[in-house]
Structures are given as C-alpha cells and as structure tokens.
Amino acid sequence: MRARVLIRPKAGILDPQGQTVERALPALGFEGVSNVHVGRLVELDVEDPSKLDEMCERLLTNPLIEDYEIQS
Amino acid sequence: MKFGVVRFPGSCDEVDALQAAQRVGDAELLWYADRDLRGADAVIVPGGFSYGDYLRVGAIARFAPVMEEVERFARSGGPVLGICNGFQVLCEAGLLPGALLPNTSLRFLCKQVGLSVASAETAWTRACTPGQRLSIPVKHTTGRYYAPEPVLDEMEAGGQVTFRYAPGENPNGSARDIAGVSNAAGNVVGLMPHPEHAVDPLTGSEDGLRLFHSVAPALV
Fold first, then answer.
1. ipTM entry
2. CATH 3.40.50.880 for the B2-219 domain, yes or no
3. Residues in CB range of B20: below 8 A, 6 or more apart
4. Shortest Cα–Cα distance, B159 to chain A (Å)
5. Where exactly are the structural domains of chain B?
6. Domain A2-71 class?
C-alpha cells in the first residue's frame, strides 16, 4: 500500500521557516496569507499499514517536536 | 583512564575529540558498526553530520550498532559526553531530555561564545565552579535547544541545566539560554559548543579541557 506521512512542527513551537515564507509572499504581491508552516512529506510503500504509527513514533518523527498525519 | 570516541559515517570532529581526550588520558576511536566500547571508561559522541543529517539530525545514528552499547553504558552510570551532533544523537536516543531545532536565524553559525557553568555537579563539569565562564566555539545550524516548559522547570529544579550561553550571547534561540544539559544522574551530558576545539592557546582558548579533566579524576 502506498502511504504518505505528513510531518509538521508541533503547534506552539517557533517555526522560523514558516515565518520566513510568510514574510516572503507579500514581497511578491501575495497578500492575505497567514499561519504558514513548513514540514516534511515521507512517501512509502508498506505491506502492513498497521505498523505505520509505530514507524512514525520511533523513526519518521520526533514526537516531542513534530506532529504527523498518515494519509493512505 | 581511557576515552572512547564514536565515529559514525559523517562524523567530522572525532579526531579533534580524540586528540583533546589524549591530553588527559588514553583515547581510541569506536567504530559505529561495532557493538564494542573497547574497555572505554568514558564515551564521547562527537560532532559532525552523522548519516548526512538525513530525516532529522541524529535520527539515524541513534540506531547504529555501537549506540546499543553506549546506551547500556550510560544507563549503568558510565560517563557519556555528546558534543553538537553527538548532543542531538543523545537526545534522539532518549538519554537526554529535549531536542535540537533549527537556529532561529536558519543560518549556519560559527563563532566563539561565552558559556556559564550552571551545574558543576555532573561527571563532565566537576573540574568547573558554578557560574564559571568558559570561552568555547559553536558551529551548527540545528542548535536551538527545546523542551516543553514543564520539562524545563523540572530540569532546572533537578540541576539538569549544565551550561547556559552568557547573557546576550544566545546564538540560536535556545530555550532559557540553555547550551548544555545532563540526565538526572549527571553522568550523561550534551552540549552544542565544542570543548574539543578549545584545548590549546593556539586556537584562542583552553577552557574546553575542563570537561575532559572533570571526567578523569572521577574514574581514578
């Protein structure tokens, strides 16, 4: 099965990448953009999708600083 | 007294750490793929870019075979020091609290900083005095120390904040100016600055030697 894991900085943790992108957009004339956050995407083929949560907890993310969402 | 210095694929400060350790004792490199600490009395996890910093800094190195032995050694009270990437690896391994995030500037930093010794009770700071100021360089992109507020409060109460950046010198946005921390027992310490690069007047400071001297008498 093809799965996608979306990883984003945990809410409340300073995200300077998101802030930088948020400031850059108006410079190009794109107004009205807020709450920008930059994360990572991991795509994988997996035989047993029930193992995905454990994979996320143990390796793909650091649960202290990141939240994840599995899309399959 | 023998130091073991871990070498991962992508380590780059292991030879400086080895040579710094050799100023106070014997020292040997430990290969990442060996489950063997070669009789080391103290272990250093050095700086660099282990496994290319793939996925997250320290995330892959923490599963290297040698780390099983380092974890066992640490949990039995053996002195372990993580420097820069080594600090990130020890946090990922759960041997130290917290995590390291990208610098608020998002830039690579390379500069001499002033540190203040916040705890002289750890295995690696016994030769320091509380509040002592040390001049040691930092060089990193991912050095912003983070832990949730309640964890930080607990760490402060338990004396687990080991080093702080001197007032006004926090280079990376670290929580509460924290530059280095220890585990509750004080045998495992991690810090972003590089004591192994501050062991000779030629490079501007010998203050880093204090950490290496700290661990040596503790083991005699």
1. 0.91
2. yes
3. B195, B196, B199, B208, B209, B212
4. 21
5. 2-219
6. alpha beta
